[in-house]
Amino acid sequence: MLLSAALFALVPAQAFAQDSAQSEPAAAASVDDNGNEIIVTGTRAAGRTKLDSAAPVDVLSADSLKRQGTSELAASLSSVAPSVVFPRSSAVDGTDSIRPATLRGLSPDQTLVLINGTRTHPSALLNINGSVGRGAAAVDLNTIPTVALDRVEVLRDGASAQYGSDAIAGVINLRLKQASSGGGVTASYGQYVTDVEAARSSRKERDGEAFQVAAWQGFKLGAEGFLTLSGEYVDRNPTSRGDIDPRTLPASPAVLRSRFGDPDVKQYTGYYNAALPLGDNIEFYSFGGYQHRKSVSAAFPRVPGNANNVLSIYPDGFLPLINVKSNNYNIAAGLRGESDGWDIDFTLAYGRNALDFRTTNSINSTYGANSPTSFDDGGLVYDQWVGGVDFTKQYPLGDGNLNVAMGWEFRQEGYKIIAGEDASHDRGPLGDDSSLGSGAQGFPGFRPSNAIEKNRQNVAAYLDLEARLAESFTIGAAVRGEHYSDFGAIATGKISARYDIAPWLALRGTASTGFRAPSLQQQYFTSTASVFVAPDIVETGTFPSVSAIAVALGGLPLEPEKSTNLSVGTVIRTGGFSLTVDAYQIKLRDQLGLSENIAAGFSEQVRDILAPYGVSAARFFLNGIKTKTRGIDVVANYKLRTDSVGTFDLTAAANFNDIKVQEVPTSTAVNLDPVPTLFTRQRIVSIEEGTPRTKIVGTIDWTLGGFGLTARASHYGNVTQPSNNPADDIFTGRKTIFDLEGRYQVTDNVGLALGANNLFDTYPDKVPLRLNSSGVVAFPYYSPFGFNGRYLYGRVNVTW
What we know:
This protein is mostly beta strands.
């Protein structure tokens, strides 16, 4: 920041170029003279609206996000943006608590997330289990409360040449409130009121009670500055959607033994956004936030006769609980201003996510009756520094203009694994019994041999040109080069064009190359367990691809994923009606994936390779997956204002998406003969059919005086929860979910709302009886809308 201030001191005094803060969070500067939303994502030219852009951009207002019964931003986005899907996985360890969202069906880490245009950090968690997004370390969208947001911009186009790594599927830009006065508080309460129809049983459930209170307040800083504070508290009880467990007699409802559903969550979050003019040509700005979340999910239940149960401790069996404490930080500060027609922006940002794991109601069976029942399993930490400077200037060009943007960025990332207590991972006095599992049942702790601390740096520079020739033709080009300290340099490029055939009709298209750098989590995550293989205790688990064990099996340093993106579309608008149709193709190569376990029992050659390391099985990340994604996005909107029956805002949006895996790695860098299967059918089908190929959302927003109504129908195509045997695949079926909310403004400052998510209590298809031997997984956890049923809620909103 001292360097930034010194550089600005050299800038000649010019007219201050920043807009003054608005008194309300929905600032007038966010729309043009015709009421169209001005965007800042996907273009660096000032004044572009979502209907003027060369690439498709969704602008989702804070109102559309909060007019729902959920406290989760990712769930809100999934409800209103067809290209976004938020599966609500369960029984997949830490991913139950930190669930990733997907864009256009691609991996969650192939979407870049920004806050106020600045790159934010991903979670420290690496999803290594069988959920959607396996192998990804993605941004946890639910760390940002909707109360802090003015709007969300979703760029549905490859943008690595503009923003850098991760922007293969697109970009989600979270824009914080900018208010210098006013405020409000919202309190809501809801619960699931549902009939659960599983394969073996049916019952009524009243659970998942959720209480949420959120508030914001704007303050004036000086004559033209602002400070907006936002806060939220959430207390959400767990849900359970298991079936009868037939493994013991008499059979009992699984809800009493298992807990298959949403975790128990208690969290509080605070955010701020501020700007203060320091003179005629310079403004200081800053934003940031903190969230503490405690989440408790359940592992699979252990019945009394389970080999890892100790009857003297748990005579009725036990249900291990996985406790995840997440502390998430964001802070950014910068200076921006104008000199000689150049808009200049210096930014420095820091983000950190720390996860602490604890297993309770559990046991380490190798300690017998002396086993603890609660274990400190260790933790994961990821942090990131981002600094950079951007320069933007507009030049006259004939009857139009040329917008020139350029800049550089520096980023440093760090990743740490912290070991848990000895009993969470050790084999105790009974460890020679090979029938007993290792460590804490449900979630074994990280071992001292797993503990690591790694970091890397990268620098980047970009040039972004956008020319508007007269009023009918726009063309753009961008190029970006980056150098990473671990794998070297990479360059990406993008071209875009738009032609307005008439005021009501335009054609647009883009072509770009993209990349995603392998995350530190993918490069260095290590999780092992000790098992007894007579006469030795050996390790099995996940290893870095550059570890001695993985290298012996053919592991290599990870390279970046690369993409080629093509998009072509049309924009139609007349009066209050607009329609955009965009077709796209995304070719991915060198995509990363987590291999299957390569076990010593596979062949004598593998046994001999692993023997010196005391390892019985290993898996690691490797490049080599090749996919092709094709799809069409359609968004139609019509606004109708009448004097007698109110105002109608009608939206219909759809995403049709098809992913094909064209190639997977079939061998490692060493000659293993025979060759083990590195990627099974289950992994391939998960990529191709793990998210819906069709998603259609239709919304009606109606207002008349103090009354308001939102009705939404969301149709999801069939999703496959795959198995290695096609006959054992589980399907969600094609489902349509209906949401309804009614509102009444009691006074100018007090509003009430009542609503129902999933009004008609729709579930995915149940898991067939023959595939549900334990009764735990009664519904497919790949379901894109979850499996909790009808949710009823009420909300009170007070503003001032």
